[in-house]
């Protein structure tokens, strides 16, 4: 699903965010990406989302060499990936339903079909009863779940999450992780960047450990 | 948002780069595309209506920029109407020698009438000339002191061809006739009027370009602020796979609405201004013995103005969005 081949990323020609990263992720895998802030987790995810291009090496996702992807194809590529952000990036000027429907809106899905899929996604994260609420009316944990519903409404083959539990208490964090595991169980490849080591350790999935832009560990959490 | 209608009905859409990637155009793709256009047309109008004062001010600025060239164009148009009237009255006056008496004058007038290039003649005898002179100048007293009529008989010639060069050569030809003292023609001022009209047209064109640029800047700046205020939304939709065209669309519609609104305001102001000026202009024209009314923009010209202003608004938005979308990169 994802392959990094000798990937390096420099910003401004000096600061080396990532150096010689090599790893493969198979279809249907679930894995964590850990490391201190500044270790390169976000840079790595940005490369997968094609928000950045590597300075060296190749990034392949679902068979596409992202560097060869024409700029006009990038939007279509991004539609195949679901992304959960730390600050959930909901739009506060519209209700929960509209927020979750956004990816489908962009793709021009028939309204009736879109409504069905939005309700299914909201049901999955347990917020079906709040579809008419505004994001501001929800708790942080609920907002994050809306963000997840938006990421999966499209049934993406790859789900990325950048510190999805960063602002949540342990109980809510565990709930969120369980949601990711549920999506992984139905075949979605899930990659979660997190520094919540205690939580990761309990979940028993593959862990990629980054330090100062280098991959220093790849295996199940100890 | 207090409305409870389904937000999916509010904004939906689809991006298909039809020409380059026809295989991506799923069945119903065109319909989805139309749906998004319709939704954005409504959504952008709604956003303008929600901030009526700011919207009105922007449209007013556009209207003022449109009124100046349009007003000048109207003024030129009226000058052209006057011009046409004057062309018809472009006549030559052939003055006979002072010793030509009335019967000789009639013969001469017939001879002039027989010349090629002469469309018509009207004889003004010496006595008629004096009467005219007295009437127009009101100088009865001074003229009654004279023993004899100092005015020669003359014939007013309407040339068949009114273009300045043709009239000039006709005048030379009439000059050679026996008994003709002088041929007068007022070509110089006709020439000047035409040059003035040509100058006016250039000035109008230059003004139109300048103020068109002004409209672009006004719309561009307004759209720039709109883009800035919706920055987060743009970042998010870009992250989840919106194309540039999708992101740009609502702003392009906003620009077109601004342009259209400005055009409508300009038409209204031109109409009101025309009405306001109509009676003094008519009075002024009356005092010169001319029949002249201010022209107004007809239906087709009004439609053209609206089309032009809408396109300008759209273009201004396109330029602004293109520039600022490049700056907005998701973090």
- Helicity range of chain B: 55-70%
Briefly note the structural class of the backbone of chain A: alpha/beta
The amount of beta strand of chain B, in percent, is 5-15%
Question: CATH superfamily membership of chain A, which one?
Answer: P-loop containing nucleotide triphosphate hydrolases
Helicity range of chain A = 25-40%
**Rounded average pLDDT of chain A:** 90
What is the oligomer described by this structure? Answer: heterodimer
End-to-end C-alpha gap of chain A: 25 Å
List keywords for this structure.
heterodimer, A: alpha/beta, Rossmann fold, 7 helices, 10 strands, 34% helix, globular, B: 331 residues, alpha+beta, Alpha-Beta Plaits, 4-stranded antiparallel β-sheet, elongated, disordered N terminus, ABC_transporter-like_ATP-bd (chain A), cell division (chain A)
Task: Give a verbal description of the structure.
The complex is a heterodimer of chains A (222) and B (331). Chain A contains seven helices and ten strands. Chain A is an alpha/beta fold and 222 residues long. Chain A has one domain: P-loop containing nucleotide triphosphate hydrolases (Rossmann fold), CATH 3.40.50.300. Chain B is of the alpha+beta class. Helices cover 69% and strands 7% of the residues of chain B. Chain B contains eleven helices and four strands. The two termini of chain B are 27 Å apart. The N terminus of chain B is likely disordered. At the A-B interface, helix 2, helix 3 and helix 4 of A face helix 1, helix 2 and helix 9 of B.
């Amino acid at each position: 699903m994802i392959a990094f081949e000798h990937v390096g990323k420099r910003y401004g020609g000096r600061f080396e965010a990532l150096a010689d990263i090599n790893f493969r992720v198979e279809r249907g895998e679930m894995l964590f990406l850990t490391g201190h802030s500044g270790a390169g987790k976000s840079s790595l995810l940005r490369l997968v989302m094609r928000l950045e291009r590597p300075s060296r090496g190749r990034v392949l996702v679902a068979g596409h060499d992202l560097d060869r992807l024409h700029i006009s194809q990038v939007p279509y590529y991004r539609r195949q990936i679901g992304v959960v952000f730390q600050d959930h990036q909901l739009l506060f000027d519209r209700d929960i339903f509209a927020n979750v429907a956004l990816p489908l809106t962009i793709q021009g899905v028939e309204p009736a079909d879109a409504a069905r899929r939005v309700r299914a996604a909201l049901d999955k994260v347990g917020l079906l009863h709040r579809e008419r609420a505004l994001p501001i009316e929800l708790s942080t944990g609920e907002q994050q779940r809306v963000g997840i519903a938006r990421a999966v409404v499209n049934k993406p083959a790859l789900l990325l999450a950048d510190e999805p539990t960063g602002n949540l208490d342990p109980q809510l964090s565990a709930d969120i992780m369980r949601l990711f595991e549920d999506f992984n169980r139905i075949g979605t490849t899930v990659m979660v960047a997190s520094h919540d080591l205690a939580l990761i350790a309990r979940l028993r999935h593959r862990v990629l450990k980054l330090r100062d832009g280098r991959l220093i560990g790849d295996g199940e959490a100890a | 948002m207090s409305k409870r209608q389904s937000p999916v009905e509010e904004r939906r859409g689809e991006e298909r780069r039809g020409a380059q990637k026809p295989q991506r155009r799923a069945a119903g793709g065109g319909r989805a595309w139309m749906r998004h256009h319709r939704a954005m047309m409504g959504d952008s109008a709604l956003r303008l209506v929600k901030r009526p004062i700011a919207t009105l001010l922007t449209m007013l600025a556009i209207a003022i920029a449109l009124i100046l060239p349009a007003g000048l164009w109207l003024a030129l148009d009226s000058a052209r109407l006057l011009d046409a009237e004057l062309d018809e009255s472009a006549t030559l006056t052939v003055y006979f020698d002072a010793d030509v008496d009335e019967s000789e004058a009639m013969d001469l007038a017939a001879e002039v009438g027989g010349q090629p290039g002469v469309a018509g003649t009207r004889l003004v005898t010496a006595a008629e000339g004096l009467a005219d002179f007295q009437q127009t100048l009101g100088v009865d007293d001074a003229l009654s002191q004279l023993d004899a009529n100092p005015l020669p008989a003359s014939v007013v010639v309407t040339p068949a061809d009114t273009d300045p060069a043709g009239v000039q050569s006709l005048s030379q030809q009439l000059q050679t006739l026996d008994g003709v003292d002088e041929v007068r023609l007022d070509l110089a001022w006709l020439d000047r009027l035409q040059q003035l009209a040509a100058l006016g047209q250039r000035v109008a064109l230059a003004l139109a370009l300048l103020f068109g640029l002004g409209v672009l800047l006004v719309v561009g700046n307004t759209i720039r602020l709109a883009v800035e205020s919706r920055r987060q939304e743009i970042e998010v939709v870009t992250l989840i796979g919106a194309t540039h065209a999708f992101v740009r669309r609502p702003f392009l519609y906003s620009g077109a609405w601004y342009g259209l609104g400005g055009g409508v305001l300009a038409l209204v102001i031109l109409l009101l201004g025309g009405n306001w000026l109509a009676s003094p202009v008519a009075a002024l024209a009356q005092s010169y013995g001319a029949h002249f009314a201010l022209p107004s923009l007809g239906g087709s010209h009004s439609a053209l103005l609206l089309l032009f202003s809408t396109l300008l608004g759209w273009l201004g938005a396109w330029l602004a969005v293109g520039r600022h979308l490049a700056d907005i990169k998701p973090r």
